[in-house]
Structures are given as C-alpha cells and as structure tokens.
Amino acid sequence: MQGTRAFVPPKVQPSVLVAWLFAAVVLGAYTILRFAVATPSAVGISQVLFLSGPLLALAFSTAATWAAPSRTRAQFIWLLLSASMGLLLVSECLYSWQAVSEGAGPLSLNVADLLNLIALVLVLALMGAISGIDRRAWRRNALLVVNCLVVAVAAFALLYGVWIGELASSIATVYAITMTAYSVFGLMLLILVGFVWVEMGPVRESSSSRLIITAIVVYAAGLCFWPLWRLSSEAHVSALWAEIVLDVLLLTAYLLVFLAGVHRIENATADWLRTPAVSYRFPVPWVDMTVSAMATVVVLASGWGAYQAGRLSPGRDVYLGVLIASTLLAVCRTVLAAHLDERLGTRLITDEVTGTQNARGLDARVAVYLASATRFGESFVLIIAAADRFSHLGDRLGPELGDEALARVASVLTEGLEGTGQVFSLLGDRFAILAPIADSSEAGRLASRARSLVRSVVVAGRGLECSVGFALCPDDAIVQDALVLRAEQALAWAQSHGGGQIVRHDDHIERAIGMNARTNTLERSSRLDMVRALSAAADARDRSNTAHSRQVAALSRSLAERLGFDEEHSERVQIAALLHDVGKIALARDGHPDRSRYFPRDETVGQHAQLGARMLESLGAEDIPVWVLHHHERWDGQGCPSGVAGDMIPIEARIIAIANHFDRRISGALHGSPMSKLAVLQDIDLGIGTLFDPALAEMFIEMIASSQGFGWAGWGHDS
Predict the structure, then answer these.
(1) According to the CATH classification, is domain 359-505 in 3.30.428.10?
(2) What is the pLDDT of residues 532-572, one digit of tens each?
(3) Where are the domains of the chain?
(4) What CATH superfamily is the domain 534-705?
(5) Does the CA dihedral 424-430-434-435 come out positive or negative?
(6) Residue in 189, 263, 264, 277 with CA at minimum distance from that of residue 226
(7) What is the pTM of this model?
C-alpha cells in the first residue's frame, strides 16, 4: 500500500524571523516606556506602540484573507479574524482618546464596550469555524449554545456574587455587570479554546493556526484581568501589577495575530485549512450531566441571593435577572434534549436508504405482537421477502442506483400493504412484513401480494424476481428469535430452490436445514484449513511479520461486524483478508515472479494483488478475488492496480486496506521500525479522504481506541 506522504514544514523565512524580532522589540519597548520610564512623553510613545499591535494584526490578517484560496474555510477564518481586529483597533483608539482627553478611562457602558462585544462574537464564530461546528446538525448546535449560556450565567453569578459585586459597591450596577461580563467572556473563550486545543488533530497549517489559537488564549486571559484592574483603580487600590499584566497580555495577543499573518503569507503555497481541525468522535455524556447540575445550582443559588438581598438593593435585580435567565435556559435545555433523544430514537430504528423501520424496529414490533398473541390469543405472520440476484444487479448498477431501487421496492410495499401490514428493511435486499392474520390462508395471500408488489418494480428495464418465506405465530413459533429464524430459513429454502417461490416454514425444511448445516460445517472447516495454509505461505515471504495476515484478518472481521455485516459476510471478509497477500507466493525473493502458468514473467512485486486475484479466481473463490485485487486502491483514485476511487472500490477491499495499513505500520514492516498505536491512528487520520474511506477510517480509529486486542495473535506490537 502506498503510505501517506509525510508533511515537511516549510523552512523559516528571514522575514518571519524579522517579524518575531520586531514583535519582541515592540513589546519590550512598550513595557519599559509605560511602566519603567513613565514620563508623559514616554507614556505617549508607549500608547502609540500599543495601538500598533491591533493595527499590525488588522493589516496582516487582511492580507492573509486575500492570500487564502477563495471561498474556503481558511479564507472565512481569516476574514473573521481581520474583522474582529478592526473592531478592537477602533475600540482601543476610542478608549485611548477618552483616557488622554479626560485623564481616565470610561466609567460606564460605552461604544468601545459595544465594539468589544461584537469582536468577541466574531472570535467565537472563528473558533466555531476552526472546530467545524457548522458540520453538526442545527439542533445539536442549539443545545451547545444553550449549554454555553448556562455555563456563562453560572460564571456570571459566581463572579458577581463572590468578587465583583463586593468591589463594585461604590459604582453603577450597569458598570459592575459590564465588568463581570468581560470576565465571563474570557472564561468562556478559555474553555472553548481548551477544548479545541485538546481535540485538535495534526493540522498541516500548524504555524499560523496554533498562533491564532494562542493569541485567543492570551486575549481571553486579558479579558479576565480587565475587571480586576478597573475595579481596583476605581476603589483607589494600587494595582500596578494588574495593569502591567493586562497591557502585556493584550499587546501580546495582537502581536501573535500579526505573527500568524506573517507566517501565513510567507507560506502561502503550503496547505491551507480546508477541513475542520476538530473531529467529534467520542461522546462526552458527563458534559450534559455537569451542565444540568450547574443549571439547577444556579437557579437555587440566585433565588436564595435575591431573597437575602434587600428590597432596594441593586444586587437584588441582578440576582432576579440571573434567576429568570437560568430558569429559561434550563427549560430550553430540557426541550432540546428531549427533542434530540426523540430524533435519535427514530434514527436508530429507521433505515436511511428506504425510510422504513430497520431490524431494531422489527424486533420492537415483534415483541409487541408476541405480547398481544400471548395475552389475547391473536395470530400474526412474519414475512421476509428478498429480490433474487439483486446483489449482482447492484454491482452492475452501482451503489447509488442500487439504493434507489431498494427505496422504490420499500415504497411500493409500503403503499401496497398500507392498512394490512407494516414493512421493515433488513440487511441487504431483504424486507420484512409484520401483519395480524385470521388463519394460514390469509398469510399465504399476503405473502403472494408482497411478491407481486416486488415483481412490479422495474430496474434496468426488467422486473425484479422475488422469493418469500414466512412463519406464523403461534403455529410455527412463540419465541421471537425462533420466529425470525424460521422465517429466514423459509426464505433461504425458497432462494436455494430456484427462487421466485413462496415457502412457509415446516418440519421438512427444519430437517433439511439441519443436514445442510452439518455439511456446511465440514466444508467450512476444510476451506479454512486451506486458507490458513495459503496465508501462512504468503506471510513466510516476510520474516519481519509472520503473523501479518492473521492480524489483518482479525481487524477486518471486527470492522465488518461493527459495520453490521452478517456472520457469513464477515467470515468472507476475514477469508479475503487472510488471503490478501497470497499473490506473494508467486514472487521470488529477489522481487521477480516465479515462472508459473498464472502469471507473465514481467510482473513486479507491486502487482501481487493482481497475482493473488488470479490465483483465487482459478480456485473459484466467488467475490473474494475482487476484494483482494482492490485492497491497494486509494479513496482519491491514486492507488493500484486499477486507480478506481471512492465508492467504486468494494467496501470489503476498503476494510482490508485500513487493516493492512495499520498492521504494516505497527509492526514496522513499512519503514523498518514499529510505530505506537497512537502514532498509527494519527497516521490513518491524516489519510482520511485521500488514502481511506472517511467513514470507515473514523470507525476503525474508534474501534482501536476502545479495544485491547483482536483475533488469534493479540497485540504484541503496541508500544
């Protein structure tokens, strides 16, 4: 398999070094002039130096916006950043003008505060763009916003009640609320940036992206310090250290944005951020529980604070506002969470292709019917219908047209049986029908009706053929698993005897299936012995990893089962994975193929997938040769031997490709030295969308992260 191309960071340009040196000089000069020299002229020069920070940040973030590829996530991020820098520059100018003209900063809510608020909203939007929040469903985003507001209200109540409310007793309540809001915004930014930083994957645009995030962290820390300095100065308490920390934090944040812009412009030919830097893989249920508890505590605490405050106390209005806000947010959380749970429950029992209920829905409805049958003696039938040879038709039409045909079959069955029975979509091309009946003859008529409806669907110019199997309750079974099994056995009997038939389960089928099962067990045992022998012969060609095929087979089967493949399908994937390197048997150790009637002499080692496929075709291994042939293809079409891309690669081959890549990396077979499990998972994450199917790769990463071992060999390579 072709490995991922390692990302080599660009060399540091001289202009970047000059920018870093310039930023350090500006920061040092401002600190010395403002706090060490502190003469009127020095303070004036330091004020100009301070304003140069947001001015440079605005200029270079705007330049990076123009340099970014048009209409990409990167351009949107830089646009938000430049807009926020522009607003903050105007705000700083207004504040400095008032401080110079009046000798002190503003003591009430003003235009600068409004500009700061808008800039902070833009910064929050910027963090959302980096983390890919726009890819989530709007209901989940709404719940996320409500959760953030709950945390913000809780932080506001805590800060105001414990700290700022006491310090601000001598000033206007609105101004105290404004100061508290600054600290709350700072804390929220720190929490959000902390989440993004922890969950941030290996971003290729690391120099500028991480500088931006660092700048936001520093600015958020400055917001937290702002009320401490302002309220201390209003209370005539010496807070020079707080002023030094605040000014240095804010100026550092502006200069970091300036440096991020310089890095981005100088490396404009390098990769830009086109996809989110954060992938939401792992659920965090403790977050919802924590926010729920926080909302409850805030409601109780704010109510108690309002009760304790005097009737004429300005703090009483603040606590009442917090009480109302927290109560409304708690109600919104409850409504949104209930709606999401309901939608999740619906999605869990709904087939995405056909829109009908899936196997989970069938299990639930069968349980209801069985309870009714047990209590009231009612009868019902379970019918399972399948379009004969639909898998071959789907391979010829492609996945999209195949799904469209299945959706039409489901629609025809649902409309044709409306008021009579309920239709369910099962795995592959099978459909189940559950209906109450009076007797077995009515069940037969319903099964015949279902077959006629499926036959009426025309695909690729011809009507579908349909086989039907059914079982009755309580005549054939009174236990759920037994009823489903017997309906499936009746369907299997109909399909194995020419197809196009309607079969009810009976004792004759039970005996015949028992004999076939024993025969199949013997055949399977013999086949697996042969497969293991072939895979061992292939692994013997690579002394560095003699258990490679078994490891890949164990991983592939686990991933197939996680995808919902049935037992037979998962076993065939396992066999294909065991044999994926069988073509190496035909290759001599010097890299040239042995002479054989299967292979021309000029084949190379890189073509072992083709050689293996030809060997397996000669053995009559059904569709396994196709999977082996394509296990070195890439999702972007740059693989071999055929160069097919995306869904045109069989999903079984895509499964084997990921498992093969993982074991090769973790054993050191590709580069000579083993890699840790975490490093290999990061490597697979880098290959999402290029080397690997994104959905399968995400599922594989989650599977490995939550599992300890697989298959026969376990994990001896992890370090």
Answers:
(1) no
(2) 556 556 555 555 555 677 788 888 888 888 888 888 888 88
(3) 14-148+179-281, 359-505, 534-705
(4) Hypothetical protein af1432 (1.10.3210.10)
(5) positive
(6) 189
(7) 0.51
